[in-house]
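Thread: "does anyone have the structure for this chain?"

Original post by V.I.:
We have the sequence but no experimental structure in hand. Need at least a predicted one for the grant figures.
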Amino acid sequence: MRNQRSFSLEFKRQIVEELMSGESRPAQLYRRYNINSSVLYHWKKQHSRGKLNNRPTEEGAPRDRIEKLERLVGRLNLENEFLKKGLQHSLSQSQRNGKSSGYGDVLASPSGGGVD
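Reply from O.Q.:
Generated one for you, tokens below.
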């Protein structure tokens, strides 16, 4: 099994800047530095987002923010669904026990509850 190599941020930035300047083509860089194409393009993506101790490019910074926000929305949706199921389970348990919690109308309403 091959050991995983690690490269400094400075080295990665140098390689990406060499690629972007047009000094070398990708295939030349793969051979010269013995790196895989996917590694080079991953470094290029990091460079565009400013993660190689450089300033982010104009398209990289917003893209990074969008991805973070999309992950947050996904996590909040999962939490919301979990809480809804927990409330429904709790209500069904209390109805089986003959207790009224007062929340039954909220779940039964067509709008799904909340503020109208």
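V.I.: this helps a lot. The CA atoms of residues 56 and 76 lie 28 Å apart.
O.Q.: and The first helix runs from residue 9 to 21.
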